[in-house]
From TrEMBL:
Protein's name in the database: Methyltransferase domain-containing protein
Family, per entry: Belongs to the CFA/CMAS family.
Stored InterPro entries: CFA/CMAS, CMAS, SAM-dependent_MTases_sf
Organism for this UniProt entry: Comamonas flocculans
Alphabetized UniProt keyword annotations: Lipid metabolism, Methyltransferase, S-adenosyl-L-methionine, Transferase
Source superkingdom: Bacteria
UniProt GO molecular function: methyltransferase activity
Length: 433
C-alpha cells in the first residue's frame, strides 16, 4: 500500500518551480519532467520536507542521503515554499533557550575553541576559495555603489567605502581584526598609506598574507599576526580599527570582551568600524527550520548572531560611541549569489581541489555543503532573516573642543559628506591585486 504523502504533496504544490520527488520506497511525486528533482534515500528526509525543516534536508543532501538535480537557485525557491514558519521566529526566542545559549556560548568561545572553529572553515582550501572569490579574496559583503558593478568592482568599492568612513590618513596606525586574506589590510596600506597590522586565527590566511606583503614590498609598513584578538597587546593604541566579518564568530557571551578590547586598542578620539552579520530578529541567535544547525555543523561552528540593537548596547557599555550605522543587507544577497554562480560554473574543478585536499568522501561533502550554504545565505539576506550592518564607532577623548566640530570628542565630523567626496590628490597610486 502506498504510504500517505498527502501533506508533502500539498506543500510541493505551493512551490513556484515544479519539483519531482523520488521517495525511499520508489514512489514518485510531482511531474516527471520537472527541472528540479530530489531523490530521497532516507525516510527521515520525507518528514523533514513535509514539516518544512529545510536545514535538516540540507544536512541530508550533504551526507548523501538526498540527491538533488537542477540549479541551486531553483532549489532555494522550492525551499522557501516548503517553509512552514518564519525562520526568525521559532523556538530560539524562548527565554530559557536564550539563557542556555549564553552559557553554551561562554563555553564554546575559548581562545582554543575559536582557533579550531576558524581553521575548520577558513583552512578548507585556499585554491577552492580562489575559484569563486574576487581577485582580492574578500570574503565578506561587497558594496554595489552602482547597479552595474561586477563583484570585483563592488568589493573594491566596499574596501574604499570603509577606508573613507574611517577617514584613513597616511602614516596612521591601523588594525584589521580578523584580516582574512588581507584585502582590507593591503588596500588600506597601498591606497591610504597607513601602517597596518592584521590579526587572524587561520594558518592558511596568515601564510597567504605574509606572502602578499613580501611580494608587494610592504614589509616595512604592514604586518600580520597569527593571534587571538583577546591576546593582542600593544605599547601604543591604534588610530583606526576595522573588523570585517569577525563579529559573527565572537559569540554572545564574549561580546563585552570583544568591544572592550576594541576600546582598549583604539586611541581616544579614534574611529573603529564593525562590519558584520546581524540577526533579523531581536531575540534569536540563529535561524530555525534547521538552518542554524546546518550552518553550525558544516560551515561556521561556533557562529552566533546578535540583533543590531544588542550590538549597540554592548558598544555603549564598552565606552564606545556609535556615530554611524548602515544596513547593507541587499548587497550581501547579491554578493552571495555572485559567489554561488561562480562556484556553480566551476563544479568539476572545485571537486578536484577538495578531493585532492580532503579525500573523496570529505571533499564531496564540503562541496555539497558550500553549494547549499552560499545559495541558502543569499536567500536569507533577500528575505531579511539576517542582515549586514556597518557600525562606525569612536572612543570619545573627553575634550569638548576637539575634532572638526565643537563637542565631537573625536575626529568624526558628524555628517556623511566626507564619505562621498573624492579622495584628495596625492594619494598612494592604486594597483591591481
Amino acid at each position: 500500500m502506498r504510504p500517505p504523502y498527502g501533506s508533502l504533496e500539498a506543500r510541493l504544490e505551493k512551490s513556484p518551480v515544479p519539483i519531482a520527488i523520488v521517495l525511499p520506497d520508489g514512489d514518485r511525486i510531482g511531474p516527471a519532467d520537472a527541472s528540479l528533482r530530489l531523490t530521497l534515500h532516507d525516510p527521515a528526509a520525507v518528514a523533514a520536507l513535509a514539516t518544512g525543516a529545510i536545514g535538516t534536508v540540507g544536512a541530508e543532501i550533504v551526507e548523501g542521503r538526498v540527491r538533488f538535480e537542477g540549479s541551486v537557485r531553483e532549489l532555494m525557491l522550492a525551499a522557501q515554499a516548503l517553509l512552514q514558519a518564519d525562520p526568525v521566529h521559532d523556538e530560539h526566542t524562548t527565554w530559557w533557550r536564550q539563557a542556555l545559549v549564553w552559557y553554551v556560548s561562554r563555553a564554546r568561545h575559548t581562545t582554543a575553541r575559536d582557533a579550531e572553529n576558524i581553521q575548520f572553515h577558513y583552512d578548507v582550501s585556499d585554491d577552492f576559495y580562489a575559484l569563486w572569490l574576487d581577485p582580492w579574496r574578500v570574503y565578506s559583503c561587497a558594496y554595489y555603489r552602482t547597479p552595474d558593478m561586477a563583484l570585483a568592482q563592488a568589493q573594491e568599492a566596499k574596501l574604499d567605502h570603509i577606508c573613507r568612513k574611517l577617514r584613513l590618513q597616511p602614516g596612521e596606525r591601523f588594525l584589521d581584526v580578523g584580516s582574512g586574506w588581507g584585502g582590507m589590510l593591503l588596500w588600506a596600506a597601498e591606497h591610504y598609506g597607513v601602517q597596518g597590522t592584521g590579526i587572524t586565527l587561520s594558518r592558511n590566511q596568515y601564510a597567504y598574507v605574509q606572502k602578499c606583503i613580501e611580494e608587494r614590498g610592504l614589509g616595512g609598513r604592514v604586518q600580520v599576526l597569527l593571534q587571538d584578538y583577546r591576546e593582542l597587546q600593544v605599547s601604543e593604541p591604534f588610530d583606526k580599527i576595522s573588523s570585517i566579518g569577525m563579529f559573527e564568530h565572537v559569540g554572545r557571551a564574549q561580546m563585552p570582551t570583544y568591544f572592550s578590547t576594541l576600546q582598549r586598542l583604539l586611541k581616544p578620539g579614534g574611529l573603529a568600524m564593525n562590519h558584520g552579520i546581524t540577526a533579523g530578529g531581536v531575540d534569536n541567535t540563529g535561524l530555525g527550520a534547521g538552518l542554524g544547525e546546518f550552518i553550525d555543523r558544516y560551515i561556521f561552528p561556533g557562529g552566533e548572531l546578535l540583533h543590531v540593537s544588542v550590538a549597540l548596547q554592548e558598544i555603549a557599555r564598552a565606552g564606545l560611541e556609535m556615530v554611524d550605522t548602515e544596513n547593507i543587507r541587499p548587497h550581501y544577497a547579491r554578493t552571495l549569489w555572485a559567489w554561488s554562480d561562480a562556484l556553480e560554473a566551476q563544479l568539476p574543478r572545485a571537486r578536484e581541489i577538495l578531493v585532492a585536499q580532503h579525500g573523496e568522501d570529505r571533499g564531496d561533502k564540503v562541496l555539497r555543503a558550500y553549494r547549499l550554504y552560499l545559495a541558502g545565505c543569499a536567500l536569507g539576506f533577500e528575505q531579511g532573516w539576517v542582515a549586514l550592518h556597518q557600525i562606525l564607532m569612536t572612543r570619545p577623548d573627553g575634550l569638548p573642543d576637539s575634532g572638526p566640530m565643537a563637542g565631537a570628542q573625536s575626529e568624526y565630523p558628524f555628517n556623511r559628506e566626507y564619505i562621498y567626496t573624492p579622495p584628495q590628490a596625492g594619494a598612494t597610486p592604486r594597483r591591481q591585486p
